[in-house]
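User: I've been trying to design a sequence by hand for this structure and keep getting stuck. Would you show me what you'd pick, starting by listing the structure so we're on the same page?

Assistant: Good idea, let's start from the same input. This is the structure you sent:
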């Protein structure tokens, strides 16, 4: 994963794609797609889904998207105690 892309706002994006099997349209199959993409428009995922619709036989049924920033400000938490070893 490119650090430069992450600094430009790209985040790890995972899509759960359910599609109809071409040989048995009543059955659904799952495909997991993952790449760096920009929320909320997800242009990389949209380009992939357009490719799918143009070139693959399995009709799309459902697409669920999860996205997480990989680079973000550090989180600090205060503690109520101190732990010492040795």
């Amino acid at each position: 994963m490119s650090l430069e892309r992450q600094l430009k706002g790209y985040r790890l994006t995972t899509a759960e794609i359910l599609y109809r099997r071409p040989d048995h349209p009543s059955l659904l199959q799952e495909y997991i797609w993952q790449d760096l993409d920009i929320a909320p428009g997800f242009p990389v995922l949209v380009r992939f889904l357009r490719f799918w619709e143009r070139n693959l036989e399995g009709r799309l049924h459902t697409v669920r998207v999860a996205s997480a920033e990989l680079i973000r400000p550090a989180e600090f938490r205060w503690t109520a105690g101190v732990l010492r070893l040795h």
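That's my pick for every position. To get oriented when you compare it with your attempt: Residues 3-68 form one domain. The helical segments are 3-7, 43-55.
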